[in-house]
Amino acid sequence: MIEGNASGVAVVAAVAGSPKHEFSKHVQTSIRLMAGHGVEGDAHAGSTVQHRSRVRVDPTQPNLRQIHLIGAELHRTLAASGFTVAPGALGENVTTEGVDLHALPTGTLLRLGADAVVELTGLRNPCSQIERFQPGLLAKVLGRDASGALVRKAGVMAIVLAGGVVSAGDLIAIDLPQPRYHRLEQV
């Protein structure tokens, strides 16, 4: 499940946040994760849903999307298809390097740096905002598997279990849940 990079380890490639409900987030030197809340000062942080579409449906539901992670590998794949996508551009808080995020099961713990721990809750559901960001991009982050089932490739979502400061270059440790893995589904 770890792809490995030039150094053979999983690392944080970049971190980003935004206090506004805007599509892209701004790359920062570091972000502070807060347990049960998300990224300090980020518009999507909170114990209950913060994504506007979810708030309209039920503002009391738990926020399973406190933090959004995307692999730098996706950025490179998109660049090879002619798209310009930098860290934070697709709304992610953490860009990883050397981890196949989509292959990890629900409940996987990622230890980001010295203190922060996040638990994977599911897949990001690519929406029309991606298409508005760059025409044709939505089709590149959605696909079909051999059986025709929809494959979402726009990153994973997580909740924050333990807070801490996360910076580019921090190591990522992966703790898989107990066997009887459940694949990530849309949240």
UniProtKB/TrEMBL annotation:
It comes from the Bacteria. Residues 26-175 form the MOSC domain. InterPro entries: MoCF_Sase_C, MOSC_domain, Pyrv_Knase-like_insert_dom_sf. This is MOSC domain-containing protein.
